[in-house]
Specification:
Helices cover about 30% and strands about 25% of the residues. It is α+β, with helices and mostly antiparallel strands. The protein has a single domain, classed as GMP Synthetase, Chain A, domain 3 (2-Layer Sandwich). Strands 1-2-3 form a 3-stranded mixed beta sheet. Strand 2, helix 2 and strand 3 form a beta-alpha-beta unit. Belongs to the BolA/IbaG family.
């Protein structure tokens, strides 16, 4: 099952309400996206910690072959 960019953003907004979020559909298939998330909560965290927080915010939607989202290329950082 595919997801829309808006569904991804809605899930991320629940955890990162003040974040700057940009979602790009990379393949036009609803399964391959890129996301840029800029949020103060990432300050002081390494890249792995930041990306784990994003995956947690997706609430299992990327889990294994039955997940709704196949691929998500992440760019995460704290604001400048």
């Amino acid at each position: 099952m595919a997801m829309s960019a808006q569904e991804i953003e809605d899930l991320l907004r629940e955890t990162f309400p003040e974040a700057k979020i940009a979602i790009t559909d990379l393949a036009g298939d609803g399964n391959h996206y890129a996301a840029e998330i800029i949020d103060e909560s990432f300050r002081g965290k390494n890249r792995v910690q930041q990306q784990r927080a994003v995956y947690a915010a997706l609430k299992g939607r990327m889990d294994g072959p039955s997940g709704d989202l196949h691929a998500l290329a992440l760019t995460t950082k704290a604001p400048d």
